[in-house]
Design goal:
globular, transmembrane, mainly alpha, 69% helix, transmembrane helix, membrane, 2 strands, TAPT1-like protein, 16 helices
């Protein structure tokens, strides 16, 4: 007998056994229905009092429910790991404005002057660029910070504080919500404005340029940073009024406003992409609130002549604001993962994604600076916050003698050392995360084939076009195997557009997933080197 006939016999036997089981189930159900129809009142009461049941008959469902409970309590720990790593990445970008950006700005000016002088005397090639793209970006960033600090310095914060303080509680609550919405909208629009400026200023020569010029984009960027800095400054003043006011009603309303976020997020449908965006937004919001609270503390301590007892009065309210934010994040993510069946390991993959961004920007020929990558991933733009912090510090600290300048220099060195230490720590952590992800991929065991040993063959899907003839074939930099844990968890079938073979559990091609390092959005913008499978 041939193998084909044996397989047909096995399939017929399986179909016959399944039909017998269905008939037996139907017969049993009919018998139970007949018994229930003839049940007397006495037997009904007796059944209700003595009726037993076995939970193990539905073992799979109860086990799944228990795992959901365990996952619910694991979410706070996993989200805090992700938030902590993202928080220090935001801190790295924020401290860059005060430490390395002034140094790089000074070096860029020095290179500009020396190369211009060499070009005048004929020691510098005329066809070469005077400044490199990174030096041009540093000059633009430094110039924007200087101009925006000058413009923000004309705002009288004392007058703004008293105007805000004289308003009613309801008006302040509405004003605070309007500022929060405006801050998010400006963050979404701001990085596009800055990227457009940087690309316009560094675009290679010889191309057909379709833009309005560098000065136009520079003016728009300065207007954006100034407006965003003003919004952040007003946020800090409103929070200052809420904390230092005798009536704690506004502070209570501001704190309770966080719980409104639960209503808008918990009962919606989310996938892993949306959850990543929410998680990055929470990281950015938490760091933003910490900077606002620091501004409030500095302003209040200055008004009270830096007395220590005032700090201990402010500390409980600041901790209450931070604690409420953390609690709301825990509840929000716990219920989102509960309702959408997202495992807790998703946050580990998100942390690996942040680590891959950091690794890419630390390469010799990176696509952009780390602060720009953080801005694109999390929506955190450090320039407006840096301008506001400079405005508050310049108003709160006076330099009157050489000792004060010595203290300022010592503080700058301490801040520079902290930024270097923070950068080393997050870079080392990124290497560990990438290494652990690669280890998990090596030791990952794919699930067994349910058709193995049944005589049935896996159906073959429709053939996909080969990548050799596609326009983007030159960007195919890696192969995604069938046991890739990273893509199995993050890139589902609907999001994975394959330009190679797809059959028998084998995946080959490029990943267009929105949260991957290529930028996403269904469009390949840069050659993609996967952080795990490359």
């Amino acid at each position: 007998m041939s193998d084909k006939q044996v397989n047909n016999n096995n399939n017929n036997n399986n179909n016959t056994s399944q039909q017998q089981q269905q008939q037996q189930t139907t017969t049993t159900t009919d018998a139970e229905l007949n018994n229930l129809r003839g049940l007397s009142f006495r037997d009904y009461l007796k059944t209700e009092l003595r009726r037993g049941y076995l939970l193990e008959n539905d073992e799979e469902r109860y086990t799944a429910r228990r795992e959901k409970v365990y996952t619910f309590f694991k979410i706070p720990r996993e989200i805090e790991k992700f938030v902590a790593y993202g928080f220090f990445q935001c801190a790295d970008s924020f401290f860059f404005v005060f430490t390395f950006l002034p140094i790089r700005f000074t070096l860029a000016i020095w290179c500009l002057l020396t190369r211009l002088l060499r070009k005048i005397v004929g020691l510098y090639a005329s066809n070469r660029r005077i400044l490199k793209p990174a030096e041009i970006v540093d000059l633009l960033k430094g110039f924007m910070v200087i101009v925006c600090c000058y413009l923000i310095g004309n705002i009288d914060t004392s007058v703004c504080y008293h105007i805000i303080k004289t308003q009613s509680t309801i008006k302040l609550y509405l004003f605070f919500n309007m500022l929060e919405i405006a801050d998010r909208l400006m963050s979404a629009f701001g990085q596009d404005t800055l990227d457009a400026l940087f690309w316009t200023a560094t675009e290679p020569r010889g191309r057909k340029r379709e833009h309005f010029g560098v000065l136009f984009h520079l003016a728009i960027a300065i207007i954006y940073v100034t407006l965003h800095s003003t919004i952040v400054l007003l946020q800090a003043l409103t929070l200052n009024v809420a904390i230092n006011s005798d009536n704690k009603g506004l502070l209570t309303i501001v704190i309770s406003n966080n719980f409104v976020e639960l209503k808008g997020a918990v009962f919606k449908k989310f996938d892993r992409n949306n959850l990543l965006q929410i998680s990055c937004s929470d990281v950015r919001e938490r760091f933003h609130n910490c900077v606002l609270l620091l501004v409030v503390v500095i302003q209040t301590m200055k008004e009270y002549a830096w007395r220590e007892e005032r700090l201990w009065i402010l500390l409980p309210d600041c901790l209450l604001v931070c604690g409420t934010e953390v609690l709301v994040d825990w509840l929000k993510h716990a219920f989102i993962t509960r309702f959408n069946d997202i495992p807790a390991d998703a946050y580990r993959d998100y942390t690996t994604l942040l680590a891959s961004d950091l690794i890419m920007c630390k390469q010799k020929y990176a696509y952009s600076d780390h602060s720009d990558l953080v801005a694109r991933r999390m929506g955190f733009i450090p320039l407006p916050l840096g301008v506001v912090m400079y405005r508050i510090l310049s108003q709160s600290i006076t330099l009157t003698n050489p000792t004060s300048y010595l203290i300022l220099g010592t503080g700058f060195l301490c801040l520079l050392s902290f930024r270097v230490l923070n950068g080393i720590i997050i870079l080392g952590k990124a290497c560990d995360l990438i290494h652990s992800a690669q280890t998990r991929r090596v030791h990952y065991q794919p699930p067994p084939d349910p058709n193995h040993g049944t005589g049935r063959t896996r159906p073959k899907p429709d053939p996909k076009p080969d990548p050799v003839g596609t326009p983007d074939a030159k960007h195919d930099r890696h192969t995604v195997p069938d046991d890739c844990e990273y893509h199995r968890r993050i890139c589902d079938g609907d999001r994975f557009q394959n330009f190679g073979k797809w059959g028998g559990g084998e995946r080959r091609g490029r990943c267009f997933h929105p949260i991957c390092v290529c930028g996403g959005g269904g469009e390949r913008r840069e050659p993609h080197i996967h952080p795990i499978t490359s």
